[in-house]
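Following up on my earlier thread - several people asked me to post the actual chain instead of describing it. Fair enough. Here it is, all 218 residues.
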Amino acid sequence: MKYLIEVGIVVLLLTLFARVLHGWKNVLLISKYYATIFAVAFLYVPIAVMWIKKRQMDFLDTSVSMFVRGIIFFALTALIVFPPYALGAHLWMMFIWGRQGFSAAPFPDLWQTVVFQILLIALPEEFLFRGYMQGTLNKVFTGRKRFFGASIGWALPITSVVFAFAHSFVHYEWWHFSIFFPALLFGWLREKTGSITAPILFHAASNILSDWIARSYF
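Reply from S.P.:
Thanks for posting it. Predicted structure:
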């Protein structure tokens, strides 16, 4: 119970903070450092809690081989998931939204976008949700089953639901419910590899790909 209360308080407070921050994002000083403030809060609050509780951050890579394993699983998962996703997105744009065709959008600031997505979006979100939250809930929901080579428990879908809901709470979009599905994959990658490297990379790549597809039809 103590872990549930702890996780509930931490995630709730950070979600409320993110909502307030989003509401003030047009304020001059905040608008300049909005993403950085968000990232610092989502990283250092769970770090502080785990430090106070004297718990190890066992979701971080402990060796070069573990880091490389995360990169490999990210690459393999991307090769499997992204092509059918792109095809599905194309059909959605053509037949649901009635777009006339695909025109590849440019990437004038590709490396800046990659760094931004990894360090200021994917890293803090994955650290909080897949690292801290899912890892802590694994201590509560100890029953696990093997799923495609990963030991999965209730912590994964619960974290995924909260992750999707948090997006809508901060800034509502009708499609936010669908975030639950990639969140399941982020969580599976965390369990499969033992770290958040693969989920961070896949999360960032998913955001970049989704944005590029949207810009290529609108």
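The two ends are 48 Å apart (CA to CA). That should answer part of your original question.
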